[in-house]
């Protein structure tokens, strides 16, 4: 591959120390010249290039780069940020790159160079022009041997390809040779992925779903906070803001007299002086008591709270509180500054808390925002950047003529938004097709609209430690959302312990921090694997699946439906792999579709067993009509789905029968020809019979319920007997035919 631009046509990149890293006209609206880093700065903050409101700090820390190679990589980094993608990469469609890549891509590329630079420095390489193709081959081989995900290695090596592509614009000492994975015999740009197959060791480039033992209680507490606790938190916040507004900035006449009268009244009634019990002071007092064994010192008075109560300035309270408390032997500071709001939310029939303290309001408001974020992100499947930048009025409700209600959310999307030349537009665009969501999501949006004042539903300003930055957006960032979710989990666990609900405690996830990306993957996982299951507090996953499908009708872009297809393929593969294993161990099968079940397990074992499924194989698995096997242990059966004969499919026998690609377990009929049963299913049925026998033997059931259980026991007994009389025993040969 040769460069198509001659170097003498273009001035070589060698910026002066005070040269801006990028021009102000490319920065987000509101950014100033002071937000633009200079070439000689040790840190380049590129966040101003991202125009979204959920922008995080995107920094290049040059101290992380090997000193000998740092000047050359800084010049190459400036070229990457300011020059269009070179022609060699643009000319090959397989490279999938743009003339102006997104700032997150550029940041990742430059950061990746730091790994390469450290490795080169360990080989005593002191300038970029000393890099040889043999060194690059050694680096690629070593990176592949670490067991890292193949796609991570692909991106790292393509970052080096980008460095090579800018060679015509760089000084001679900053140029590297063409990487060996870009050779014509390997296939050229874009085919580097195929040249890396021998370096793949393990790992799947997929976001891990949140473990069910974590997601279930997390969702329970999020929904509980949004539905039951929200009115109390919102009313407390209104009262806190009223008190803050009621205290004038400047001292007003008569204010000191009001303060003296207030303390006299407290002395007469025996009421305590409101105390300042912030979370930090709570921690210090607990630490003092734990270390010394003695009671902690009294709290300081909450002068801001008192000023708001009396309508005087904080300075007037500060000037009198010490003398008033010191001169009286009947005044003592209380445990906090409780707000005069009623607690209406209940948990197990009793108030979820006693009072809300002035100093607790901000933390509770953050927890409420986090709970709404969890509900919206999880129950909608909206991408993180889109969720965090939702705005007031984004949710609309449609009451249909048939009595059904549809809630829809409209917002901006960013991932695939490009201009006419294919360049990424950092400001995004309004989504053409809204998201269809269920009622709890709509309720969460309503709560956020009551909680926040501006346009954004998730503003960063709703925080005790908010620091405005002109180069950043105004919305929560994904990183801050992770921290908020961690704090919400800890707060929920405190409530669980306080109310004796240890079974609802949120454990640590085995895959690490709960991120917004994982919510999207998890809901797809549950939709596929729990088609008739229920989300906590009775929300049906099946209903949610239908809503998502309705919201994506007619769309062909890569989005939630592709994610659902991937999860469907993974679930089918897991079902067939388990079936083949059990059949090889001699498990029996019965039912009208028993032979199809055996055939499907055998075909899967022959075609896919023992390997890692690629995306192409996932698609083939979903499309293969002979491998559509769906296990449904709750109904003690497996559905070998054929849309033309399935009794759950209203369109069976019609031209559009294949429009329903998966079975509807809620309409499952015992006479369906697609049913098969295994020994595993009958063992589950036997366990249910044992439970029914125990319930009946206790003699505490009303007669109608007893009769219903007896009918259930009779039906399950008949199911087991039918299976035993017609079962076909599986053999190792039957799964390897």
Automatic annotation (TrEMBL):
Keywords: DNA recombination. Gene3D superfamilies: Intergrase catalytic core. This is Integrase. SUPFAM superfamilies: DNA breaking-rejoining enzymes. InterPro entries: DNA_brk_join_enz (IPR011010), Integrase-like_cat_sf (IPR013762). It comes from Streptomyces katrae.
